[in-house]
Amino acid sequence: MPTYTVIHSQAADRDIENIATYIAQDNPFAALAFAKELIEAIQTTLSEFPRKHQRRKDCYQYTYKRNYLVFFDIEESSKTVNVLAVTRAARYLRYKEYFE
Predict the structure, then answer these.
(1) d(C-alpha 55, C-alpha 66), whole Å
(2) Which are the contacts of 38, defined by CB distance < 8 A and separation ≥ 6?
(3) 50, 74 Cβ separation under 8 angstroms
(4) Which CATH number is 21's domain given?
(5) Could you give the number of structural domains in the chain?
(6) How far apart, in Å, are the Cα atoms of 28 and each of 10, 13, 15, 21, 22?
Protein backbone atom coordinates (compact mmCIF):
# COMPACT_ATOMS: atom_id res chain seq x y z
CA MET A 1 0.00 0.00 0.00
CA PRO A 2 1.54 3.32 -1.08
CA THR A 3 2.24 5.75 1.71
CA TYR A 4 3.83 8.59 -0.31
CA THR A 5 2.57 10.54 -3.30
CA VAL A 6 5.13 10.60 -6.12
CA ILE A 7 5.37 13.79 -8.21
CA HIS A 8 7.61 14.12 -11.25
CA SER A 9 9.19 17.49 -11.97
CA GLN A 10 9.03 18.80 -15.53
CA ALA A 11 12.77 18.13 -15.78
CA ALA A 12 12.31 14.48 -14.76
CA ASP A 13 9.48 14.01 -17.28
CA ARG A 14 11.67 15.59 -19.95
CA ASP A 15 14.55 13.27 -18.98
CA ILE A 16 12.33 10.18 -19.38
CA GLU A 17 11.04 11.49 -22.71
CA ASN A 18 14.62 12.05 -23.93
CA ILE A 19 15.63 8.53 -22.88
CA ALA A 20 12.64 7.07 -24.73
CA THR A 21 13.37 9.18 -27.82
CA TYR A 22 16.93 7.89 -27.87
CA ILE A 23 15.82 4.25 -27.55
CA ALA A 24 13.15 4.82 -30.24
CA GLN A 25 15.86 5.53 -32.81
CA ASP A 26 16.50 1.78 -32.82
CA ASN A 27 13.21 0.36 -31.58
CA PRO A 28 10.08 2.51 -31.07
CA PHE A 29 8.15 -0.31 -29.39
CA ALA A 30 10.96 -0.99 -26.91
CA ALA A 31 11.13 2.73 -26.16
CA LEU A 32 7.46 2.89 -25.19
CA ALA A 33 7.69 -0.28 -23.13
CA PHE A 34 10.81 0.93 -21.35
CA ALA A 35 9.35 4.36 -20.53
CA LYS A 36 6.19 2.75 -19.14
CA GLU A 37 8.22 0.24 -17.10
CA LEU A 38 10.50 2.97 -15.73
CA ILE A 39 7.60 5.21 -14.71
CA GLU A 40 5.81 2.30 -13.03
CA ALA A 41 8.99 1.25 -11.19
CA ILE A 42 9.54 4.79 -9.94
CA GLN A 43 5.93 5.05 -8.77
CA THR A 44 5.87 1.68 -7.03
CA THR A 45 9.28 1.82 -5.42
CA LEU A 46 9.24 5.42 -4.27
CA SER A 47 5.65 5.48 -3.05
CA GLU A 48 6.28 2.55 -0.73
CA PHE A 49 9.91 2.72 0.39
CA PRO A 50 11.54 6.03 -0.51
CA ARG A 51 13.99 6.07 2.41
CA LYS A 52 15.55 2.71 1.57
CA HIS A 53 17.55 4.32 -1.24
CA GLN A 54 20.97 5.90 -1.13
CA ARG A 55 21.18 9.37 0.41
CA ARG A 56 23.18 11.98 -1.47
CA LYS A 57 24.10 15.56 -0.62
CA ASP A 58 20.66 17.15 -0.98
CA CYS A 59 18.53 14.28 -2.22
CA TYR A 60 18.16 10.53 -2.54
CA GLN A 61 19.17 8.28 -5.43
CA TYR A 62 17.27 5.26 -6.72
CA THR A 63 19.18 3.03 -9.13
CA TYR A 64 16.94 1.39 -11.71
CA LYS A 65 18.31 -1.70 -13.49
CA ARG A 66 21.89 -0.57 -12.75
CA ASN A 67 21.83 1.77 -15.76
CA TYR A 68 19.52 4.59 -14.67
CA LEU A 69 19.63 6.94 -11.72
CA VAL A 70 16.53 8.61 -10.33
CA PHE A 71 17.17 11.60 -8.06
CA PHE A 72 14.43 12.61 -5.65
CA ASP A 73 13.70 14.33 -2.39
CA ILE A 74 11.15 13.60 0.30
CA GLU A 75 8.76 16.01 2.01
CA GLU A 76 7.73 14.21 5.17
CA SER A 77 5.13 16.78 6.18
CA SER A 78 3.05 16.10 3.07
CA LYS A 79 4.24 12.50 2.50
CA THR A 80 5.42 13.51 -0.97
CA VAL A 81 8.33 12.24 -3.05
CA ASN A 82 9.51 14.75 -5.65
CA VAL A 83 11.35 13.16 -8.58
CA LEU A 84 13.96 15.70 -9.63
CA ALA A 85 15.85 14.03 -12.47
CA VAL A 86 16.40 10.75 -14.32
CA THR A 87 19.60 9.94 -16.20
CA ARG A 88 21.71 7.09 -17.48
CA ALA A 89 24.31 6.16 -14.91
CA ALA A 90 27.04 6.77 -17.47
CA ARG A 91 25.91 10.41 -17.69
CA TYR A 92 25.74 11.05 -13.95
CA LEU A 93 28.29 13.84 -14.21
CA ARG A 94 25.43 15.98 -15.48
CA TYR A 95 24.14 15.79 -11.90
CA LYS A 96 27.52 15.86 -10.20
CA GLU A 97 26.36 18.34 -7.56
CA TYR A 98 24.22 15.54 -6.04
CA PHE A 99 27.31 13.42 -5.47
CA GLU A 100 29.58 15.96 -3.79
Answers:
(1) 17
(2) 16, 19, 64, 68, 86
(3) yes
(4) 3.30.2310.20
(5) 1
(6) 23, 18, 17, 8, 9
**Domain hosting residue 69, numbered range:** 5-98
Closest CA to 3 of 46, 67, 56: 46
What are the tens digits of pLDDT across the range 55-93? 877 778 887 777 888 999 999 999 999 999 998 877 766
Handedness of CA 24, 22, 73, 91 (dihedral sign): positive
pTM of structure? 0.83
pLDDT at residue 38 above 80? yes
| Number of CB atoms found within 10 A of residue 70's CB | 26
Task: Find how far residue 44's CA is from the centre of its chain.
Answer: 11
Sign of the alpha-carbon dihedral angle for 65, 52, 61, 81:
positive
CB 82, CB 72: distance < 8 Å? yes
